[in-house]
Amino acid sequence: MTPTLAGQHLPHAGAAPRVDRRARARDWAEIQERMLVPLYEAVYDRLEVGRGTRLLALGCGSGLALLLAASRGAEVTGVDSGADERPALARERLRPPGRGPRARAAARIVEGSPRDAAPVPGAPAYTLLTAFGPAGHTADGDAQSLGEQLAAATPLVRRGAPVVLAGWGPPERCSTASVLRVAVKLADSGAEADRPRPAGRDDLEESAWRAGLRPDGSGRVACPFGYADVDSAVRGMLSTGFFDAAVEATDPEQVDKELAEALHPYRRADGTVWMPNVFRYLIARIP
Question: What's the confidence (pLDDT) of residue 197?
Answer without folding.
Answer: 55
